[in-house]
Hints:
33% of the residues lie in helices and 33% in strands. It is an alpha+beta fold and 177 residues long. It has one domain: 3-Layer(aba) Sandwich (Aminopeptidase), CATH 3.40.630.30. It has a seven-stranded mixed sheet with strand order 1-2-3-4-5-7-6, sandwiched between helices.
Amino acid sequence: MHPATVTIEALTAERIRAAEGELAALLQDAVHDGASVGFLPPLAAADATHWWRGAAEESERGARTVWGAHGGDERVLGVVSLVRAGSANQRHRGDISKLLVHTSARGRGLGRRLLATAEAAAADSGLRLLVLDTETGSAAEGLYRSAGWTRAGVIPGYAQGPDGRLLATTYYYKALG
Length: 177
């Protein structure tokens, strides 16, 4: 996959549903490779599919936007979500969620492009603040720092790792223009 041959586009709820098997496989790939994205390995296909069905429902309600990256063969190589805050006093912000890049497509800047796409769309929609969390010490932290995100703090024991250990998470934020 050459980066120039990858297209990133917002996925409608219908497109998410149509690609739920492929999206479930992407989520399984990330979890099985150690990504701390709310699941523990082994992640069953049915559980991954169920999560994407919920994401499609959130997309339909306007609470979540999902962008997918695909190559010339139309295979989904990565995704990122923007989840809008639901509280009346927080409608100026959103959360970046489920930034996933298939293991076969990593190391080519796709995660950075997906993140930039979500950030630009958030700014264009009037959001002024984005937040996210990631496992402390993960490779993702380097991406977020180099993309201009500010570390807000660490919460110890936030999520359980595959071996049962409790892992810390680091929260980041980014103010938008």
